[in-house]
Amino acid sequence: MLENVSKLAGVIHSLGLTKGDTCIIYMPMVPEAIFAMMACARVGVTHSVVFGGFSAKELASRIVDCEPKLIFSASCGIEPHRLVDYKQILDNAIAESGRELKTIILQRKQKLVELGPRDSDYEQLMSEVKHL
């Protein structure tokens, strides 16, 4: 836990976020969501956890309200009878919000997605950064 949180805090710091900045955590119930919450606290970045069942419109309203500099998300969520396309919902929400921001995407093997210019791969960033 400490190693993951420390490395992710280093990622957040390397992206230029500092004390007082805000990020959104829009992820399924995976350990990486907890790492993101704790890493934000470690560097003084406020986080807002957004329920993964929200639509793009609801996520967009949270983006507008808290003005994040970064969003943590995943390629998909896994429900008993379907996959939830988190990345598509996130892209639609960002477009609807009219904001420019960075995202970190956890690629899940059940649905790999193509990353765009604003997106960074969670695992790649974690492999490149030093602890904070």
Overview of this structure, please?
With 132 residues, the chain is an alpha/beta fold. It has a single domain (2-128), classed as Rossmann fold (3-Layer(aba) Sandwich). It is built from 5 helices and 7 strands, in the order H-E-H-E-H-E-E-E-H-E-E-H. It has helices at residues 2-14, 31-43, 56-66, 86-97, 122-128, and strands spanning 22-26, 46-49, 70-74, 77-79, 82-84, 102-106, 119-121. The protein has a 5-stranded parallel sheet, sandwiched between helices.
Task: From the structure above, extract its key features.
about 130 residues; alpha/beta; Rossmann fold; 5-stranded parallel sheet; two-stranded antiparallel ribbon; about 20% strand
Q: Estimate nothing, just give the exact number of structural domains.
A: 1
Helix content: 40-55%
Instruction: Measure the end-to-end span.
Output: 14 Å
- The CATH topology label is Rossmann fold
Mean pLDDT: 95
Strand content bin: 15-25%
Low-confidence stretches: none
**Radius of gyration computed on alpha carbons:** 14 Å
Query: How many beta-strand segments?
Result: 7
Strand count, sense and closure of the main sheet? 5 strands, parallel
> CATH top level?
Alpha Beta
The general outline is globular
Order of helices and strands: HEHEHEEEHEEH
Structural class: alpha/beta
**Strand order, sheet with most strands:** 2-1-3-6-7
CATH architecture: 3-Layer(aba) Sandwich
